[in-house]
């Protein structure tokens, strides 16, 4: 293993894995053919990953009714997938160093597609949970590696906008998975609904394979061991600045997913009484994330990452407050505001991790995704307990508290984030 004494981050030295970006490679310039292909390919990967990951969420009320399980238990079909993804990100970063980022991502998407097909055919709830964990493990090869591949191949001056474009693809995936699964589940059953959403994910996977250009900023190494990966990850975990960014991932994502997990249950009950097909249309609010993630990346050049991250979090909190009303129109507006704020903040935090990690970049990005999906899994489930015990007000208080805590951590670690 080739090493260098330091990675230039605040937390001390990070060993330089031999499978690191080549020092003489500047990256593709904005506007070039390869740059456009990378963005289109990663947007497709985002669609594929998140359509597969969150397809069951759009059909949770139908699934809960059909399988006779509670709201919190049905949400395990979402949390189990995100737990699997969280567990998979570091092993995939090791595999990618040995076989290449693109090869690892292609295998991840293929495996996810096969497990998704098996999931729709499995009869028992417990077995479905196991398959969702396995599918999540497969999908762990996408989020961290996508941003790592992007930072390897694109010039640093264009990386913030490019990373935001990938995040916008994740929002499109979230929309497609949920908005297809919900109405189709009500018409033909939830297995057909979820299966159609995963078909979209499979098609997007094919687009990624066709468009992604070969890596030029990365040299793979068969000598990279899991010890190397653990050492690099440990160095990032000793960096207060990285820890502050990982906290944003855990706390903001956890609150965001909790809202989406249980809002459908709230709106199908009195006084709203909406159908599952109608509530699934609320996932169109993800379009706000598609727009705001790109805008957040562009605002960085004027305001700086810290201010844009704080602004996104503040917008999130405002959206949560709007959902407390009993007026459906205001609830929808609140959901749109919440979504735009979250994806703006996420685009900045995830891109910031890649920008700070000059060495051990795959491990830095993987850790971000580890905390991101742990937040989705843990808080996404805990939110159900708050919803069952104190209604929507209790859930809203939980989410606003998490947002405030995330910003307190960011302010405390401000000197380490320069």
UniProtKB/TrEMBL annotation:
It is found in: Cell membrane. The keyword Metal-binding does not apply. Residues 37-418 form the Major facilitator superfamily (MFS) profile domain. Coiled coil: none annotated. Belongs to the major facilitator superfamily. It is a multi-pass membrane protein. Pfam families: MFS_1 (PF07690). This is MFS family arabinose efflux permease.
